[in-house]
Amino acid sequence: MTAPLPDDATATRGAATGGAGEPDWAPLTGYRVAVTSARRSDELCALLRRRGATVCAAAAIAMVPLPDDEELHTHTQALIDAPPDILVATTGIGFRGWMAAADGWGLTGDLTAALSKARIVSRGPKATGALRAADLPEEWSPDSESSREVLHYLRESGVQGLRIAVQLHGATDEWDPFPEFLDELRAAGADVVPIRVYRWRPSPSGGAFDQLVAGIADSQFDAVSFTSAPAVAAMLLRARELGLEAQVLDALRTDVHAMCVGPVTARPLVRLGIPTSAPERMRLGALARHITDELPLLCSRTVHAAGHRVEIRGTCVLVDGEVKTLSPAAMATMRALAHRPGAVVLRRDLLAALPGTGTDTHAVETAVLRLRTALGDKNIVATVVKRGYRLAIDEDLDDAGRERP
Fold first, then answer.
1. Domain 66-198 shares a fold with domain 301-391
2. CA–CA separation, 191 vs 194, rounded Å?
3. Containing H/E element for 319?
4. Is the Cα torsion angle 55, 61, 63, 68 positive or negative in sign?
5. Tens digit of pLDDT for each residue in 240-292?
6. 236, 294, 306, 399: which sits with the fewest CB atoms below 10 Å from its CB?
7. Which candidate, 167, 230, 241, places its Cα nearest to that of 201?
């Protein structure tokens, strides 16, 4: 199952300046990024495209409409009937959403009155702002926005026999965002009422998200971004349903880099031993900058060949800073040659690396010819008679372009 990547017309090739001596490419030129966000997807895509990436977006999850969320309605009424001793607010948008839902059910006044009787703990400044807007001032909030620090504060203050309402954000039927948090409060003797606001369902089958998952399985992306753990859970579930779980996990452990907005989002992947990375600040703009900074370090390979600086990226090659757009066959040939720079790659191995060529050995000669033409200097790829081809590495320079000792 193969997912088509977006047409080049949908991606920005970089912010061309046209100035003398300035590059006509952006930091993410030549890299392919999959975006799984449901909220603010357009904003993240725009940030990445502005930096030169080719972007393919498909929401992994769809929100359960708040007026239809019977679980939230039931738990809200239960707290009105039996007010909590402690309220924990974890996110600003989640708390505001809860109050908006209560307003739709005509329960705002009753809910506010019930919560005002509780000790209130906020996980961070956004949750604090939402609480104060509802005239529910917090007792305490950590500087770190850490759930672990909130848990430590609660346990130190004593929760045995207390009823604690914990406002959560972004749960699905398959995944709970704070299982250890809730379990540890229960283990300490608390009666925990989870308030799951903005619950999610996986996106419908047979659509764009299926194609995106198949693209991950085929390593058609250099990175996939996640802004919520439910999106991660939905991606893993859909891969299983499509019979692509093994391929997706293998891709995420090798060629496709998982870029998460924060450690909570990354947790389902970390549990599976999949490498992840995240910005220090859990913000959308920070995630875009993190991808911009990290992806070239993870995915590019730079060599010096035939007097040129050659940088191999996801879908293009930069020769002395000039973007060279390659066909899929030429790109596959370049990657095979760059796997061991300077070493001879046999024709049969190059043939195996080419997409959909079968056993026709002439396809190798054609791919090499087109690669040389695209690079602009045929000497970058050297022929080794009766054996194959290799990159004509400058032996006196290392990959950084420095003279070897």
1. no
2. 10
3. strand 316-319
4. positive
5. 999 999 999 999 999 999 999 998 889 899 999 999 999 998 899 999 999 99
6. 399
7. 230
Residue 107 and residue 77 in contact, taking contact as beta carbons nearer than 8 Å: yes
What's the confidence (pLDDT) of residue 2? 44
CB 35 within 8 A of CB 56: yes
Q: How many CB atoms lie within 10 A of CB 236?
A: 22
- d(CA 40, CA 311) in angstroms, rounded, equals 32
5 phi and psi angles, rounded to 5 deg: -80, 155
Fold annotation for 301-391: Arc Repressor Mutant, subunit A (1.10.10)
Residue extents of the structural domains in the chain: 8-59+203-299, 66-198, 301-391
As a CATH number, domain 8-59+203-299 is 3.40.50.10090
The conformational region for residue 148 under phi > 0 = left, psi -120 to 50 = alpha, else beta, is alpha
CA distance 53 to 208: 19
Q: Are 143 and 65 in contact (CB under 8 A)?
A: no
Measured CA distances, 302 to 168, 214, 298, 404 (Å)? 45, 29, 12, 16
Q: What fold is seen in the domain 66-198?
A: Rossmann fold (3.40.50)
| H or E, element range at 317 | strand 316-319
Predicted local confidence at residue 402, as pLDDT: 58
DSSP state at residue 64 = P
Percent of residues in the chain assigned helix, strand, coil, to nearest 5: 40, 20, 40
Query: What is 248-316 written as a DSSP string?
Result: HHHHHHTTSEEEESSHHHHHHHHTTT--EE--SS-SHHHHHHHHHHHHHHHH-EEEEETTEEEEE-SSE
Q: What is the predicted pLDDT for the residue at 396?
A: 60
pLDDT for the residue 13: 35
The predicted model scores a pTM of: 0.70
Give the whole-angstrom CA distance, residue 223 versus residue 259.
Answer: 7
Cβ-proximal residues to 99 (8 Å cutoff; 6+ apart), any chain: 108, 111, 112, 130, 134
